[in-house]
Amino acid sequence: MTYRLAITLGDPMGIGPEVVLKALADRQLTDEIEMTVVGSLSILRDTYARLAGGSEPVANPEELSVLDCPLPEEIERQLVLGTGNRASGWASFAYLQAAIAHTQEGKFQGIVTGPIAKSAWKAAGYDYPGQTELLAEASGTEQFGMLFVGRSPHTQWQLITLLATTHISLRKVPKILTTTLLDQKLQLLINVLQTRFGLDRPRIAIAGLNPHSGEEGQLGTEEIDWLIPWIERSRKIYPNLTLDGPIPPDTMWVKPAQAWYDSSFADSACDAYIALYHDQGLIPVKMLAFDRAVNTSIGLPFVRTSPDHGTAFDIAGRGIAQSTSMKAAIQLATELVYQRNVIGRSFSQDFLI
Ligand SMILES: NC(=O)C1=CN([C@@H]2O[C@H](COP(=O)(O)OP(=O)(O)OC[C@H]3O[C@@H](n4cnc5c(N)ncnc54)[C@H](O)[C@@H]3O)[C@@H](O)[C@H]2O)C=CC1
Ligand SMILES: NCC(=O)COP(=O)(O)O
């Protein structure tokens, strides 16, 4: 069987089209699996015309498989390169919807999404916190997670980070974090570590919520009230698992940072890290691996990955966007599609960036 990935352009006025064309110029990447770009051919042609002949190779859209999503004239007129607005939000939403519909028909086994601006979606009337939630809703998935995977170019050690909560205001974090939510996220994480990453007895670290994990209640009581009891209960439920924590959130990232640069620290680092809220997890991930981390949605009935960066409107059209995170997203999606669909196939370490 031939496996196929859909690659959406994301916001057409951001760097999505540029990083897609740069990534697809990499032959090694495109040899592994068939890929179809989902977006507007007119945008791809404009991007190619701007970038071709520059310092970095770019794929020619005429030589790619493209699922064209032509834009209505009224939308096209409102597009402004480097700006996310109602029209660009309309377009990026349409691209993702098309990719989902074709995936559900069985045309694709996975989707790699270009970055979108949530504010542009909102301006276009689409009220979703992000692409993850649309993918979950469209596929009828109630329990899903946002996982970031980055492989160190220095040591090959992998930083795997699950966000227990995602796109919500900081004020809401303590209200939304419950032991039921953590049960669901932990179960999803264990499942993906075992089935997709081959980690049968994973060691997982979980961050505290408060500074110094509450300092025995002096700086906050969530740890004493429910987080420590939840960790103790989870250790009994999953005896094959090592669950460390709650670890003071500032120091939790010291060992991963050491393992990122020096393989002699790999054994003291954990297989995966659970951050309780968006920035607690993504500041260290982006500090270490902004150029190569991949956001993957777990729990969906198909594979979904995305680069970790956003639309970068500030550099759109300048030809200087790095495509390494998009390449890593395509590579990880390829690996996950094969792992889901081809029993027993595994990839060598050097397959991944
Ligand atoms: N997967 C997705 O769809 C994501 C979307 N976003 C959205 O992106 C928009 C902009 O978010 P920001 O916080 O500004 O983050 P951003 O990642 O777009 O940009 C942050 C900084 O990094 C630079 N940068 C980003 N990607 C780069 C690349 N590939 N090569 C070179 N430089 C790069 C930008 O120029 C900017 O200076 C927001 O609307 C946000 O919601 C943010 C993260 C992920
Ligand atoms: N910070 C991660 C992010 O914004 C990705 O969101 P999503 O569009 O993948 O849901």
Automatic annotation (TrEMBL):
Its cofactor is a divalent metal cation. The keyword Electron transport does not apply. Pathway: Cofactor biosynthesis; pyridoxine 5'-phosphate biosynthesis; pyridoxine 5'-phosphate from D-erythrose 4-phosphate: step 4/5. InterPro entries: PdxA, PdxA_fam. Binds 1 divalent metal cation per subunit. It comes from the Bacteria. Keywords: Cytoplasm, Metal-binding, NAD, NADP, Oxidoreductase, Pyridoxine biosynthesis. Pfam families: PdxA. Its EC number is 1.1.1.262. It catalyses: 4-(phosphooxy)-L-threonine + NAD(+) = 3-amino-2-oxopropyl phosphate + CO2 + NADH. SUPFAM superfamilies: Isocitrate/Isopropylmalate dehydrogenase-like (SSF53659). A divalent metal cation binds at residues 167, 212, 278. Homodimer. Belongs to the PdxA family. PdxA2 subfamily. The active site is located at the dimer interface. Catalyzes the NAD(P)-dependent oxidation of 4-(phosphooxy)-L-threonine (HTP) into 2-amino-3-oxo-4-(phosphooxy)butyric acid which spontaneously decarboxylates to form 3-amino-2-oxopropyl phosphate (AHAP). This is 4-hydroxythreonine-4-phosphate dehydrogenase.
